[in-house]
Each structure stands twice: as C-alpha cells, then as structure tokens.
Please model this.
Amino acid sequence: MFARPGVLPYNRGKVARQQSYLPDRRPGAGRIMHELSITESVLNLALEKAREANVAKITRINLVTGELSGVVAECIQFYFDIISKDTVADGAELSIRVTPTMLHCDKCDKDFSPTDGRWTCPTCNEIALDIVSGRECYMESLEVE
Amino acid sequence: MSVKVIKVGEDILGANDEQARDNKTRLDGHRILTINIMSSPGAGKTSLIMRTIDHMKDRARIGVIEGDVASSVDADKINEMGIPVIQINTAGGCHLDANMVESALNGLPLESIDLLFIENVGNLICPNAFALGEDARVMIPSVPEGDDKPLKYPAMFADTDVVLLNKTDLAPYVDFDMDAFTSTVTGLNPDVVIFPLSCKTGDGLDDWFTWLDSAVRGKKSK
Model:
C-alpha cells in the first residue's frame, strides 16, 4: 500500500498540512494571540451556562486567573468585546480577579509569594518548592438578566 | 429586570482538558507513546526528533505532528525521512491545543504508529498550560540560552517530565553553570529526568534513547 514503509500515500513528496486555525471573522488577520484562544474558551463556557439557565443576557462574567496562568486581563476584554457580538454575552463586562503565585519551600516548610519573579525561598535562598497556587484560571460566576 | 448570579466554578480551559483526555484515550487505544516536545525557538526540537528517528526507526514505528506559526520547513525535513508527518500552522498562535492535535490525529495512520512526537510551537511561556493528550512532556533547553532559563520560566520546567539539555558541545564557548541549572530544575521539579546531550556530536543521546525505548515498550505492554 505504501511506496516506502511508514510513508502515507498523500505524503509522497508533499507534507499534509492542517488548515490554519484562523477563521476570517477574527480581527487582526494573521494573528491569534494566546489571549484570543483563552477568550474563546471564556465565551463558549459562558454561553453554555447561559443556555442551560435559559437567560436572555449576560451582564458580567467573573473570572479568577492566577499569575502563572499567563493571562493578560486587558487583552481578554478587548477580544471579548469583538467575539461576543450578536450573542447573549454582547456588552458583558469581564471582571478578572488575579490571584498571586504562592509557593511552598520544602526545606523550610513555609509558604511564600515570590518577589520580583524570583522563585528562591526568602528564608533559605534555595529552590526546592511546590506551587501552592497561581495556576488557577476559572469562571467563578455569571451575572445575568 | 433583576440581576441574577449563576455560580459556575469551572476551569476556563476545561474544554481543552476534555479534548486532551479524548486524545489520550484514542492514543492509548493504539498503545502509542506520545511525547509533547517544548522549547524556545531554535533550541533543537526538530534536530532532536530527527536524531531520534534515525536511531529508533528500526525498532519503533514513528509519527510526528509539527506545530509552527507558519511554514512546513520542519515537516518537510521529517517527510524526507519517510516518516508520517502532519504540519499544523497556528497562524500566529503561540501554542498547540488539544483540538488542533485531534484534527492532526485524523490524518495519521494511528494503527501503524508506536511513538508519536508532537513538536509544540517554540515558546517557553504558555504551551504547558494546554494538555494535548500526551504521555510525557519533554523540554529541550540548550546551553547557549543560559543556565538561568529555569529561573525565568519556572512554570514550564515545573511541568515537564524530561529535560534534554541540548548543545553541550558549545559549553566551552559560553558561561553555563551546569550545577546551578540542575539544582534549579530539580528544585522546581524533583521527579524530572535530565539528560545533557548534543544533537550535533551525538554525546549523551544514548541515555535519552534508552529512556525512550523503555517508555515505548512500557506503553506497548500495557
């Protein structure tokens, strides 16, 4: 079946390519930022919950994002305003509560929050730690009419 | 109209995690060991994959998913080696997600693959936040990037299973403190396995091959 073992027929001399993940309706053609894919997840989850509760309008979405989730709040609102057009979430305000990174030093058995991005323990100055919080990225609640 | 509050309490990336679990179930069904490879651009992800293909191709059937912002440069190289490969272009996106991988899986002959490499987009910031359905995460930092990378991008290093420190052949020309690097990485991630190696000279590759070979066999016998 194959010309060479392990080579797909469609693959001969040409690499199969996935279509790019960029629907035309999106702003800034040629650019998908990290925050846009997160924003789409926010919108989809909000719309799903609104459908389940049979609500006509979402006025506010309360999010909690940890510092380590890598989400830039301003970008989320910017994208949200664009992609939520013509949905029940159109015009909804996003409220984003950012939770700080909290680490646990295994040697000192103490929790600490890293200062200026350095993950070294302020007591023993070493790195032997667990991430206690800061990765979270969830939707707390929706305010609806 | 009165305002009502609906409690949600759900992970925003829950949909991605769900798709990643579906991918994992599908790959498990075929007993394919799946490796998510992450690094900064230019650290040597594709070189490492090619070196590994060279060594492993007679003992495991390999497939590759290439993630890049644009181009099929990497996939073309893999294709020339006679390995099934799918290129995903993210068109500006900085990471692969589980949906992209799912559609790539649809284009691969899963029934005749034992080992699947997913080469993520070169980026040390966010790919770790997106599960793809992999068995193991492999990070490839490289010596010329400096020994401080784990300090600067701690979350990525905390989330990986294996660290392949590439380009050790350049160590004489740059200031790279191996002890500092190792203690930072193991401090962030005590269970991590670190293999210093050079794709250029081949030094240290054998330890990685041995680890991978045993992981492939482990998956087959499950």
Observations:
- Helices of chain A lie at 34-53, 73-83.
- Strands of chain A lie at 16-17, 58-66, 93-99, 102-105, 110-112, 129-133, 137-144.
- Residues 44 and 84 of chain A are 10 Å apart (CA to CA).
